[in-house]
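User: I want to check something. If I give you two sequences, will you return the structure for each one separately, not as a complex?

Assistant: Yes, each is folded on its own. Here is the first sequence with its structure:
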Amino acid sequence: MFLKIVKILDKVLDILSKGALLLSGLLLLAMGVNVTYGVITRYVFHVPSIVAIEMTKILMIPALVLAVSYVQRNERHLKVDFLATRFSKTVQLIISQIALPVMGLFVGYVLVWKGWVSMEYSRSVIHELSFSVWEEPLWPVRLAIPIGYGLLCLIMIGQLCRGIGTLITGKKKRQPENPEAEKSG
């Protein structure tokens, strides 16, 4: 029963992390178009855009925090494993699939909690606006932090469940999405 739930959770988290990555990519594309627009208006038409810089700042935080869950899910983050490789495969599994997600969940929980508190404070208490002429509200940008790190926490819960399932069954964990990149990296 546990393994069946882990498989369902794994599929749902795969869809969510890919959706977050797609949204992150679209935000980065919008940033690129926006910066190009700003450069063209400034250097070709000699009319600097007020919106270009501000919009790039607004899109950057959501683009980054939404991509983090996909990176964690596919184990593509930077890691220093010179010490971990000296242990047996079981100890490596316990470290990478159980201990690290538990520690990551603690940090992720704090980021979700404090990100939500910060967003609520910005939205309902001080009605925070940017300092630009545009004066857009900043709480939607702050909302991206608890959403992105909330998804990261879900990914770590799934990773923890997979690690426990692997310890129970002795089967290998799921392979990363791009095995060729794994060999060269």
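And separately, the second sequence with its own structure:
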Amino acid sequence: MFTKLTIIGICVGSIILGLGAVSFINSPPWPHTKTIDETIDVEKIATYEFTAEKSSHQNFKVTGESFHVKLQTPGNGIQKDEDFKKEITFDWFVLQEGTNKILINNTGSTELMFQGKFEQFGDDLYMLHNVLLITTGIVIIGFSGAFSVRKPKGF
């Protein structure tokens, strides 16, 4: 028979374990494709930064009145820092593994539409965070279950 504290501990551990698992699935550490479809408000700046492996395919499209795009790819890849009107599409293959940076500044009087499809790696620190969440959930569930079997001295 489980005590009330054991049931609470198992529930809390399960919630923490579930949060870690869902976060791990949403941003896996292995190469995956991320699709972005966002709007950028008037006079706002949007920044996208991701790590991609060599020969991975990247593309994005910006639609709006007027905007400034700064694109930096690793190595001798694309380096753009220009103003555009109406619509622009960038489509490239990464020449060297590294960090790709995209900065979009809405300089018009209407919202911008940003649509991108990026083949990228997950963030290592975020993966470590998710693994720690999963481990913490398992430890809490384990201690809660062990305490219901036999109460240790001093508790």
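Because they were folded independently, the notes below concern the second chain alone. The longest helix spans residues 124-149. The mean pLDDT is 81.
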